[in-house]
Design a protein that fits this description.
The structure holds 2 protein chains of 2 kinds. By secondary structure, chain A is mainly α. Helix content of chain A is 86%, strand content 0%. Chain B is 12% helix and 34% strand. By secondary structure, chain B is mainly β. Classes of the chains: A mainly alpha, B mainly beta.
Chain lengths: 258, 416
């Protein structure tokens, strides 16, 4: 465990030294401050931040995660030559990177929200952003351990991001159109579990667009996700989305021939 | 001699008017008894205490005054006070437990075929109907508090019920926990003013076939389905607040077959649907604030010649939705917080028209489940594309002169 901690420290140092994370944090800070303090009303500000959380955070996490994995490949190979457990190396890498990214996001978006204070949905926004950081870093690692070639790895990561952010929702819309004569309220809850971005969006929207979601079919969603039970369910599902890719990539990493 | 007789008769007449009796009723005595002893013009004072009585029939013009809110408990036996005479005043009572079974609509206070009655400062609790006026005119219903604990629509009554009345003034009342807070049916020239109607299981205010009525300065909040105005002409709805009416069948204001009416300076906030308009003709919807609603304005295809002017649309999920591809209404000079246009000539009006109906709202209208994709990237992409080239949304439904800044509707309120 001690070795894992040591490696974790080095990874964290490495990530911070690359300055990417600092630029990311500063960028988020500038955007968030701008949106919250220059904009006329706060509800709209949260909606703009929602787009950042749902699009930018996953994109940065997955791309930066993939690039980081490939660039620290030599470092990992060096470590593997030492009497260090592979598991420890992997966890240290994952924890170092995802925690750095999550911290960057929390400071970049959380600080302005905290300073302004009292914005409904702010807490959900931060929780969702942090969860999405963990999930997309895990997906980045999965795509990296799967591909030896860096270009292919980054390509796959981009495809994953594009699928979860855009294509999935378009497919869902198509599904709704094709099966519009069937009751799809319950199916919607299952569908939402298939995409962490949608889950995160649901979590935040329940704080912002309650009035609209209370409408005709929205009521089912509201009833489910709005209850404490549904809240716990979505957070557990998000955790699941982070853990499964991590464990999968750890298994591949353990057997990988470097 | 004739003169003397005339003077004596005159004095007698004046005496009979002025020397009206005052009857005092103490706890343990009967109000019914006192009413039967009273003559026209008498005043009955009821002392503080509890009176278990019901079916108190008032058929002469007397005043019934309660001291320190004496309790009249109907013990669930039918109507409690029935007024069948003109110019009756009932003031300062606490009236509980009217009958609630059977086919008849039992009420705490029933006014039948009377004129010029005053129902003032009564506290009505746990009654089937609170105050029921039928076929009456020129009555005042002021400062009453009616609360009940309605569970289902079929087993509960209305707070203040007007049926076939004219010139009734309903003012400063507080109504909660009934079926409809205030129900006005077949009544003309009535006013509902400064009332507060909340947590009623159906409508806060319900209007049917009642022309030429005014309601202003009321607050309707947390009602099962908001406020409904149906099959009516010439209604003036001014400076009311419609708040927090949330649910699958909930509206701030539900308009159905309304003509020539005014909806001005109202506030609609945090309702599932702010204004739902079906078959509205020649309506003026002006200077309202619509804030934080799911659907601020749902205007169906059968609405014609309506003017939607100088309203503030602010932080609503959807501003305007419709089920039609045509538009027969005028949208002008509203403030839309979603407007992204510019104002080069600095006249305060945007130079590019604003189309408030988004494609995504249209999709939600057709397949309600797709509300799940609200605010997703795909939904915004569709909206953006539609805004550039409108194909599915009504092309003429647009505001040609959108305001660049929110309109200060409070300014108008001050004149009220």
């Amino acid at each position: 465990m001690n070795t894992a901690l040591k490696i974790f420290k080095y990874v964290l140092y490495d990530v911070l030294r690359s300055k990417m994370i600092i630029i990311y944090t500063l960028l988020l800070l500038i955007i968030s401050f701008g949106i919250i303090f220059i904009g006329k009303d706060v509800t709209k500000a949260v909606l703009s931040l929602l787009n950042i959380v749902l699009l930018v955070v996953p994109l940065v996490s997955i791309i930066f995660g993939t690039i980081h994995f490939y660039s620290s490949r030599e470092f990992m190979e060096m470590l593997l030559a030492m009497p260090v457990k592979r598991k420890n190396i992997f966890w240290a890498e994952y924890a170092g990177l995802s925690l750095a990214l999550a911290a960057g996001f929390s400071v970049g978006t959380g600080l302005p929200l905290l300073i302004y204070g009292g914005i409904s949905g702010a807490f959900q926004l931060i929780v969702s952003g942090v969860m999405l950081t963990f999930i997309f870093t895990a997906l980045a690692f999965l795509s990296s351990v799967k591909n030896k070639d860096k270009a292919r790895g980054i390509g796959l990561s981009l495809v994953i991001w594009f699928y979860l952010s855009v294509i999935f929702d378009a497919l869902v819309l198509l599904l709704y159109y094709l099966f519009s004569s069937y009751p799809l309220e319950k199916a919607t809850i299952i569908i939402s579990g298939l995409n962490p971005v949608d889950l995160a969006r649901m979590l935040i929207l329940l704080q912002l667009d309650v009035s609209a979601l209370m409408g005709y079919t929205g009521a089912t969603l509201q009833k489910f996700f709005g209850s404490d039970y549904g809240m716990v369910f979505s957070v557990i599902l998000l955790l699941f989305w982070a853990i499964v890719p991590t464990v999968l990539s750890l298994r591949i990493f353990n057997r990988k021939d470097f | 001699m004739n003169k003397v007789i005339f003077i004596i008769a005159l004095i007698a007449l004046i005496n009979s008017v002025n020397l009206s009796k005052e009857i005092t009723v103490n706890p343990g005595e009967s109000i019914k008894n006192a009413v039967s002893l009273a003559d026209n013009g008498d005043r009955i004072i009821i002392k503080e205490g509890t009176y278990n009585e019901s079916g108190i029939l008032i058929d002469k013009n007397i005043e019934l005054i309660g001291e320190n809110y004496p309790v009249i408990d109907g013990l669930f036996n039918g109507d409690i006070i029935i007024i069948q005479s003109d110019s009756v005043t009932v003031k300062g009572f606490s009236i509980h437990n009217s009958g609630n079974r059977g086919l008849k609509d039992y009420a705490a206070l029933r006014i039948e075929n009377s004129a010029c009655c005053n129902i003032i400062s009564n506290k009505l609790n746990n009654n089937y109907f609170g105050i029921f006026l039928s076929n009456s005119s020129y009555c005042n219903v002021l400062q009453n508090e009616a609360s009940s604990n309605a569970v289902t629509e079929s087993s509960s009554g209305n707070g203040i019920h007007l049926w076939k009345c004219t010139n009734i003034n309903v003012k400063n009342n507080t109504i909660s926990g009934h079926r409809d807070g205030i129900y006005i049916e077949f009544s003309v020239n009535c006013q509902a003013e400064s009332n507060s109607s909340f947590k009623n299981i159906r409508y806060g205010l319900h209007f049917m076939f009642s022309n030429n009525n005014v309601y202003e300065n009321n607050v309707f909040s947390n009602n099962g389905a908001g406020v409904a105005v149906m099959y009516t002409k010439n209604v003036r709805m001014i400076n009311n607040r419609f708040e927090n009416n949330k649910g699958p069948n909930s509206y701030g204001l539900l308009l159905k077959e309304i003509t020539d009416s005014y909806i001005e300076r109202n506030t609609f906030s945090y309702n599932t649907v702010g204004i739902y308009c079906e078959g509205g003709t020649r309506l003026l919807i002006a200077n309202n604030n619509l804030t934080g609603n799911g659907y601020a304005l749902k205007i169906l295809g059968n609405c014609t010649d309506d003017t939607i002017k100088a309203n503030n649309f602010f932080a609503n999920t959807f501003d305007v939705t419709t089920n039609s591809t045509f538009n027969n209404n005028l949208f002008t000079q509203n403030y839309w917080d979603k407007y992204n246009g510019y104002d080069l000539n600095k006249d305060g009006k945007g130079d590019v028209p604003f189309r408030p109906v988004s494609l995504f709202s249209k999709i939600v209208e057709e397949t309600p489940e797709s509300v799940f994709l609200l605010r997703s990237f795909v939904a915004e992409l569709l909206d953006m594309a539609e805004r550039v080239v409108p194909v599915f949304t009504p092309e003429s439904l647009m505001d040609n002169e959108p305001e660049m800044k929110a309109i200060n509707n409070e300014l108008y309120t001050q004149y009220n």
